[in-house]
Design brief:
2 copies of one chain form a homodimer.
Chain A lengths: L5 H6 L5 E3 L8 H9 L4 E4 L5 H14 L4 E6 L5 H10 L4 E5 L4 H9 L3 E6 L2 H9 L4 E5 L5 E2 L5 H11 L4 E4 L5 H10 L3 E4 L1 H4 L8 H9 L5 E4 L7 E4 L2 H12 L1 H8 L2 H8 L22 H31 L1
Parallel strand pairs in A: 1-9, 2-3, 3-4, 4-5, 5-6, 6-8, 8-9
Antiparallel strand pairs in A: 7-11, 10-11
Helix pairs in contact in A: 2-3, 3-4, 8-14, 11-12
């Protein structure tokens, strides 16, 4: 099934689905698989240096001729240089996260780059619409990685009320019925992160994928809250130690974080690695190919909407009779 | 519009909407208004003593001949005596909250009382289905008052997957598009709390209602987390003091809580009162009558589903062409 929205049109994609920007996890291989399957793949630049990003962009161009995005987080001290690379390499879409990208929007738009931004609050969304972003990704606090404090259900109700640009829902979405629900709220696309970890094309260590499969809906925890940068991760010996350390010795806790994503991604190290994932991990039970995942999600979206229509039409008939 | 589900049938109500159990706020007057308008009104028994509850039940029976519920929280030391009152007074529906009511389900069912339970986890829901509850209310952590750690979007996706009894969605619902979204997820009813505070029939102090109207989506905070009983409240001088006290002097913090709901409800006291409310307060801008609120919610639900149908049918036609 296809659902055309302003988002599929804007981004020139078949399915209104975006791969969330994930540091380490969002490799060219995974992003290309997502784009080739009809959604929007995203290179997660995390704390990358500019020349590494250039390599990754060249790599994905070898793997797909479909649109793809680069996610840039404003926390990265190289953010400005990364943007230069993105412009030089003619990346079609930039997705900003973790911070306020307002100063950069105009320049990118002038270069014909589509600009999306991930927000966790309505106030930032309103400001970014004013400076010209093409769409807003509202991300609820059930998502993996860096989080705000408002849930997806609340944030999307609010954003579809106050914005004119299309809204993309993120955080907690791992089933087709959730995608249907987000459309009912007025969203015109969805962004998924954790669901893409559980794919064959994801290059994360097997332990990472296993952690996602085994997790229940209550098996994530928020670390870093006391350090001022809360992030949702799967409960592990590392996350437990982090929570203790945050209270007792914030400086050591900050040190523990250095390299912790890499250790989870490359080595599946549960004692020193930080396994970022959303609460939706509790809904994922199977590793699939990216193509199969997207097909299954779209089929369930279709079925959920049809079921709703049937139930609703039946009610209308009863009411008329 | 009417949407008939297993919930409207089970509870014998016109709209698949339940008033959430709210201590102090859930008075016979408000609950009767909700029931008279076609939804299910609920007396929130909170920490009530048994003979007070008996009075309240007799009061609501004077005000409505429609079905109503009594909410009983397992934290109340009088819970067992309250149940005796409920049986003696032939209350048609009991809704359990805040704890595991498994031991009492059979007895109530034997007396022909419908039994619903509010849960914040899938594990408790599965256990309660086994002991025979008629429906499960899944309440996400965006809700007001006592909260769990999973969001509504996650919890409802999970519950509709693992349960056979009907699922009612609670937490963060204050618009018709959110109700439509919950139906898309497979829920068969919704429970609203905060939305009913902003009604003429609600007997809370004006300051309480004003706090709800003025709140943005980020204007609630979780107090009591360090005391082991987290509750979502509107940010006030009291909530700020509570958070400091929890860290510095848990015993004093516990003392501060005594009577704090009453002080918010009766006196609108922002320095000593605890204004429980969900993140949905940020979506509420107007005081309405209960009847108007329900009509508006149902109309928006209808419109959201119709919009989704139109968009979807258009896509199907394009696909066929």
């Amino acid at each position: 099934m296809k659902i055309n929205t302003r988002i599929t049109k804007l981004l020139n994609i078949k399915y209104p689905v975006i791969e969330g920007g994930m540091a380490w996890v969002g490799t060219p291989k995974l992003a290309a698989a997502v784009s080739n399957a009809g959604a929007l793949g995203t290179i997660g630049s995390g704390n990358m240096e500019p020349e590494i990003l250039r390599e990754k962009i060249r790599e994905i161009k070898e793997l797909t001729d479909k649109p793809f995005a680069v996610n840039i987080i404003m926390l990265n001290p190289h953010a400005e240089e990364l943007l230069e690379v993105v412009i030089e390499e003619r990346v079609p879409i930039v997705i900003f996260g973790a911070g306020n990208p307002a100063p950069f929007v105009k320049e990118l738009k002038a270069k014909n780059i589509k600009v999306l931004a991930v927000v966790s609050s309505d106030s930032l969304a309103i400001r970014l619409e004013r400076v010209g972003v093409d769409a807003i990704i509202g991300e609820g606090m059930e998502c993996g990685g860096h989080i705000g404090d408002v849930t997806t259900l609340i944030l999307i109700q609010r954003l579809t009320d106050v914005l004119n640009v299309p809204v993309i829902a993120a955080g907690g979405i791992a089933t087709g019925r959730a995608i249907a629900a987000m459309f009912a709220l007025g969203a015109e696309g969805v962004q998924l992160g954790t669901a893409f970890i559980a794919t064959h094309e994801c290059e994360a260590h097997d332990n990472y994928k296993k952690k996602v499969l085994k997790a229940g809906i209550r098996d994530t925890v928020i670390t870093g809250g006391k350090l001022g940068h809360p992030a949702r991760v799967i409960k592990t010996p590392f996350s437990k130690k982090m929570l203790e350390m945050e209270s007792n010795s914030p400086e050591e806790a900050e040190e523990m974080l250095v390299g912790s994503l890499k250790k989870a991604f490359l080595h599946g190290d549960v004692s020193q690695g930080s396994f970022m994932a959303g609460q939706s991990a509790g809904l994922i039970r199977e590793i699939k190919s990216v193509e199969q995942l997207l097909k299954d999600l779209m089929k369930e979206t279709h079925d959920s909407i049809e079921k709703l229509i049937k139930r609703f039409e039946l009610q209308e008939k009863i009411a008329e009779a």
